[in-house]
Specification:
6-stranded mixed sheet; 8-stranded mixed sheet; alpha+beta; 12 helices; binds manganese (II) ion
Amino acid sequence: MNSHEMHPNDPRLHSWIDSANDPKSDFPIQNLPFGVFRHVSGHGQPAICVAIGDRILDLRGCQQDGLLDDLAPAIQEACTALSLNALMALGRGAATALRVRLSGLLRIGQPTTRENHRKVEQLLTAADEVMLLPPAVIGDYTDFYASVHHATNVGKLFRPDNPLLPNYKYVPIGYHGRASSIVVSGTPVRRPGGQSKIADATAPLFGPSNSLDYELEVGFFVGRGNKLGHPISIDRASEHIFGLCLVNDWSARDLQAWEYQPLGPFVGKNFATTISPWVVTLDALEPFRVPAFQRAEGDPTPLPYINSREDQALGGLDLILEASLSSQAMRDRAIAPLRVSRGNMRDLYWTMAQMVTHHASNGCNLRAGDLMASGTISGSTADSLGSLLEISRRGASPIQLPTGETRSFLEDGDEVIFEGWCEREGHTRIGFGGCRGSVLPARK
Ligand code: MN
């Protein structure tokens, strides 16, 4: 078989961009995640791009240079847009076709012309010479609570006698978050102020949060939307998912504890949410799909509208997730970030398809570029907990940093770093790139 006929996920493919063939690279030719960039100088319009090794490829440039002429006009037009929304709205087939074309342009052995090769070279930029912007204009943001381990751990801390509420195993729980405060990796996050009440006090006080935390989550962008009043069936749900990113749902636990009853999270959450800049497509993740979470004996079967054989067979994703922490003192002494947990998305109780289907089950319309997030991903072991709240057991057992500092929650100057990747024997490792943010002191 020559490379012309090979699937974009085929592990035998190599790129003529050497850095993409490094087995440690997050962005081999089998990945090709989409993003939006602008030159560091700030000159020029943003453009959509894909990552390949240590470079980014400008897709507007590709369109203008005729490299995408074989693709449908709507796809070509979407490549000239300032965000990924237009491409997302065209549905998964469009992204698939574009990915196949880009893989052809970037692989070794493709019978592409010398002229095309030269054009592509002109449209590559070193990733460290560009600014990555939020990949989409996010109209709406919904955060789920799909990890049963996280829900149980948090439930124990806040309601020791009643940790997991009776609806949890029937209905994917979520809340509508705030899209306006979603920022891209690298944007500093200001410690929020808010109301909190210490246990013995008779009244709350307003002041800077004393228990700022991160939540390690995976996000997924809606591709093609659905019309208001038209639910999405479980078997069609994955057609409405464009791709995935990493999400840090920063959380002020003291504000959250005081406000969360009766209506759920509000200002304890909506001051900032950080997303990684690259959107890894479902196509690229196909080799890493796994069965949905194995429910415990005695757990209810999901209701029929969120239960399908196909989703149960392959609705999960084997995605490894790591959180690391770096304090100002650690950086001053050139000490590497400390890994504080390693989890896996396959531990989620609900699949992405179940979350999408449930979200639209009442006719709620999802739109291209909407962001959904999984909720904190925690596993069943002590080293797989996706928040400091769980790791420190709400401050009862602080973690020790290599400098001798301790942390129950985040201090000013701390940087939180998430990494995510998929790997499996016989397939090329796919990475997500990092999702970082550091904490600025509260505004005086
Ligand atoms: Mn969350």
